[in-house]
Amino acid sequence: MAVTSTAPISITNLVTEFGGSTPHALTEYYRGGSLVPNTTTNASVPTSGSISLTDFFGSSSVTNWTTVVTVGVVTGLFTQSGFSSGIFGSLSDSTVDFLSGTPTVSRIEFATLGTTPVLFKINGSGNSGWTTIKIGSLTLNRTDANSFSDGLWTWTGQSNPFGSSGSETTVVLTE
Predict the structure, then answer these.
(1) Which residues share a beta bridge with 54?
(2) Which helix (H) or strand (E) holds 153?
(3) CB 74 within 8 A of CB 80
(4) What is the DSSP string of 78-142?
């Protein structure tokens, strides 16, 4: 649950969302500190200096990375839909800011291969740091992937979560 997006807002809203130690002070709630994740959702929360309650409108303790895939489609021996860096489709944001080292996503795709896999690749990432990926209405657990190698997760036996070429699909990765 996120902090309210409109007034009124109080320190109690921050305590409910992020926790903290009494007596509470705004300075314990800097983004990137021990309580407020350094994510795009919390971009309006300062990392130091002047801070006010209104900086927290819409902020959240949940560490999600959200991007929009503008769907590309490539056909050949099989059809690929979604995004593959430099080949087809595009992402509104490719940097997963809650993972260490700021790794980038290079593939989120569905292929009409014999096993109909969904593929997800994060460059510079190990097999940890996130729990689920939601592609449109399809939710996949990292631990349920059929295979993992060099930052590429594969889930087989899936339906195509992407729309037609040029359409947009929201993708949410949860820590």
Answers:
(1) none
(2) strand 152-155
(3) yes
(4) SEEEEEETTTB-EES--B-TTSTT--EEEEEEEE-STT--EEEEEET--S-S--EEEETTEEEEG
What does DSSP assign to residue 16?
H
Q: Cα–Cα distance between 36 and 26 in angstroms, integer? A: 11
b/e per residue 40-75 (b: at least 16 CB within 10 A): ebbeebbeeeebebebbbebbbebbbebebbbbbbe
How distant, in Å, are the alpha carbons of 29, 46, 72 from that of 50?
A: 12, 7, 44
Q: Are 1 and 14 in contact (CB under 8 A)?
A: no
pTM equals 0.72
Element (H, E) at 152: strand 152-155
Tokens of 44: 């309006």
Residue with tokens 């921050």: 14
Structure confidence by residue, pLDDT tens digits, 4-52: 999 999 999 999 999 999 999 999 999 999 999 887 789 899 999 999 9
Q: Give the residue among 96, 174, 87, 78 at the shortest CA–CA distance from 135.
A: 174
